Amino acid sequence: MASTTDVKLNSYRTGPDDKGFFGLFGGRFVAETLMPLILELERAYEDAKADPTFQAEIDYLNLHYAGRPSPLYFAERMTNELGGAKIYFKRDELNHTGSHKINNCLGQILLARRMGKGRIIAETGAGQHGVAVATVCAKYGLPCEIYMGALDVERQAPNVARMKLLGAKLNPVTAGAGTLKDAMNEALRDWVTNVTDTYYLIGTAAGPHPYPAMVRDFQSIIGKETREQMIAAEGRLPDTIVACIGGGSNAIGLFHPFLDDKGVAIYGVEAGGHGLDVENGHAASMNGGSPGVLHGNRTYLLQDSDGQILEGHSISAGLDYPGVGPEHAWLKDTGRVTYVSITDKEALDALQFCTRMEGIIPALEPSHAIAHVMKLAPTLPKDNLLVMNLCGRGDKDLFTVAKALGMKI
Amino acid sequence: MKTETRIDKHFAKLREEGRAALVTFVTAGDPDYETSLKIISGLPGAGADVIEIGMPFSDPMADGPPIQASGLRALKAGQNMIKTLQLVRDVRKTNAETPIVLMGYYNPIYVYGNERFLDDAASAGVDGLIVVDVPPEADDELCVPAIARGLNFIRLATPTTDDKRLPAVLNNTSGFVYYVSITGITGAGSAVATDVGRQVARIKRSTDLPVCIGFGVKTPAQAKELASHGDGVVVGSALVNTIAASLDKDGKPTAATVSGVLQLVRSLSGALKP
């Protein structure tokens, strides 16, 4: 049902175009050495998508290995406490490895195997993606090297131990501020050096085409399940969906299947760190950044007036990235999705609120989404069906949270 | 290519002399603006045929530790795009002939504004551009408007650029072709010369443009060996390493900074004399 205001856009779900653009955003901005590789990857992915056995294999692994479908859970106490919208959690923290990251890794590892690649590399911020990559590499017996910022290695000790236990070689990155963007630079340098045998398993819906579209496709299981589960539970689609955004893979996975449902209000929650007014003190690239080109795509970036990339800040290592997936950048500019931000402090409060209300310790990343739900839900009527993607569990953050709250462990 | 740039003229002259080009790379503003201006202004006298000036970027994904560090030194000393274009203007005050190529990544150009950048670069006396992360697939954005202003757009060809892709890479390329002799980042391992010879010959079958070979050229002996396969060699990491080694413990330039770089350029140039 196209309204008169969007005559030019019949659907929000047809991107990217054949050059990998979502409007102005996306594309393939990489060094020549990598161009043939990403063109090969694009062909291999198109080929795999058309092969029913590839999808069947993913379905099997989702069911028996990852533990999907993840439940859609009615958060009754939180709903009553906030006194507005009926709040559901999409429980992607219950997946094997503890977050939504496994959805993408299972898809890409099968693709790497189809392509005959014998070595896997990846970047990681919070370590959730690194753990998921190390997991699928262990399962398929593939050697794996993970690039992780030295600062993140320090603040995500449990995930570092898990990756090592799974047999991954961990390469701490000291360049720059030692966070996710620097890890991604080093992973790209590895890939440009090891071009024949190496598969770069990017963890978020960013990077050169076809990664943003491919990661979105693998993560869209979240939104597809949510549709079916909400119809089963309530007989209709949700009215409001909310997810946190770093690079934005869990969010695009939830959002994409709902983009053309005009009645569904969609909120993406960026990391506001110390506040958007604090220079280089947040990681909200859409609300506090400007368009630029980094890591193979054009998107909103945290940068100075000379185009130098800022490090940004968030208490959550998984949101601490100066860019965002290009499809989100486009959804912001088209106005289809509303992007907001939540500060470190609000996220910490939300983490505690959720834990006490529902007996679920969320990761710091979805705690940003919960914090926005705490603001939004009371303003909505009681028959408003709201889904928040609880994309990771909080075990990995215990040290950070304890430190921030002054607890001794 | 109707307009003939300083690059085109200089390579024509070298061809007559039967000599390979020495292409030198340093980062604008490394270790500071004044020292960088002295180094760059001294390069032609020391034997550099083409001056490549790096536009510093916080996230140089195709560069190894030497050039990463070089860019960070420059940024820390306050270098930015406005000053890099000023540096070219200042070099041109004393040098009207030597080809100058700006090399770097897309984002600082994009943020400066593509049209504004191309206008300012052309009027400052820049002859060519190398923008590492703008592939031929994105020619409309920067390459085609650059050509329209009489600038050469110099493309990198790599060992992964196969015969099927080569025409796309050579299309719209002018000035010279920069052959990246290794798969990897700048300043990494040294190229295996036999393979380079075969690869450069492959490229030369498809173009009349000069081919310069870079990535991993460290010594005069290597430069001489690689020059025998193409029309020139590019030296970058070895020069910025010389800058790094000359700095005092506070990162300030010493008496050896300018002279050390120019000395290395003289010995590289000497090795390329027929």
Written overview of the protein:
- The complex is a heterodimer of chains A (409) and B (274).
- In chain A, the strands form 3 sheets. Chain A has a 6-stranded mixed sheet, sandwiched between helices. A 4-stranded antiparallel sheet of chain A has the order 1-2-12-11.
- Chain A has 16 helices and 14 strands.
- In chain A, a hairpin with a 2-residue loop joins strand 1 (21-22) and strand 2.
- The radius of gyration of chain A is 20 Å and the shape is globular.
- The longest helix of chain A is centred in the N-terminal third of the chain and has 15 residues, at 35-49.
- With 409 residues, chain A is of the alpha/beta class.
- Chain B has 274 residues and is of the alpha/beta class.
- In chain B, strands 5-4-3-2-1-9-8-7-6 form a 9-stranded parallel sheet.
- In chain B, helix 2 (33-46) packs across helix 4 (81-92).
- The model of chain B has no long low-confidence stretch (mean pLDDT 94).
- Classes of the chains: A alpha/beta (409), B alpha/beta (274).
- Chain A binds chain B through residues 19, 27-37, 175-176, 181, 185, 188-189, 192-195, 290-296, 298, 301, 303, 305-309, and chain B through 57-62, 64, 68, 75, 80-82, 105-112, 132-135, 137-138, 155-162, 165, 169, 180, 183-185, 188.
